[in-house]
Amino acid sequence: MSLRISTHLLRPPARALLRSADSIRSWDWLWQPTYGRRWHERFYRVRDDPYGCTVNPYDRQKYDRTLDLLAGRQFPSALEIGCSEGVFTEMVAPRCGKLLGIDLSEQAVERARARLAHLDHVTVMRATLPMEMPPGSHDLILCLDVLYYLPKDVLIGFLPRLKAALRPGGLLFALHYLGDFGQAMRGKEVHDLLVARLGLEVGHDEIVPGVGPAGAGCRVTCLGIPFPRHEHSGEGE
């Protein structure tokens, strides 16, 4: 998701609207504390590319940085969480044997399907996480500017399922804007939680300064699970 829309539109009117994971487990609008699924459906209905993913300099920078860090690797199976209309999905697709994109909004999913119809190995589906986490495991999981829409306790509860969806030797790639536009969590806190609680090897962790609204920067973290020891032990040689 992009951050082009004005901050006053995204700022929740009251932090008291944040509820515990138990109280919102079945609610459709979980992705943002105030602006959830119904808000997003209206938002996407107004115009194509409402987040400006095709023109926003910040989005182009984050997509380029992601592709640079993934360079030289191919992923048999990949999952993109929060794929929106499929702009980055199309860019990363050549690096994936199979690619599943998921998004909260049916409007966004329909547009992503149209954009990606020429790619037989790409599937797009509507899902509300963490309740509707698709089954299966992946070699790459992409989380670009999306996890900070979850309240902290919901994200903590989701992390074991996120880890379980990552295959041995796989890569969890997270990138989040570091400014405050009224989201449930700040980007730094999201990445600190990923590093501290997932128990995965940190392959890369950097802050990219000067990008995004007000030049607040973004943080990029790559986490992976080493292959099981016996697969590299030389047994049987």
Give a description of the structure.
- The protein has a seven-stranded mixed sheet with strand order 3-2-1-4-5-7-6, sandwiched between helices.
- The protein has a single domain, classed as 3-Layer(aba) Sandwich (Rossmann fold), CATH 3.40.50.
- It has helices at residues 7-10, 37-46, 57-70, 87-92, 106-115, 152-164, 187-197, and strands at 75-81, 96-103, 122-126, 138-144, 166-177, 201-208, 218-224.
- With 237 residues, the chain is of the alpha/beta class.
- It is globular and about 45 Å long.
- Helix content is 29%, strand content 23%.
- Strand 4 (138-144), helix 6 (152-164) and strand 5 form a beta-alpha-beta unit.
- Mean pLDDT is 81; it is low at 1-35 and 230-237.
- It starts with 6 loop residues before the first helix and ends in a 13-residue tail after the last strand.
- One of its GO terms (biological process) is methylation.
- Keywords: Methyltransferase, Transferase.
Key features?
alpha/beta, Rossmann fold, 7-stranded mixed beta sheet, 29% helix, disordered N terminus
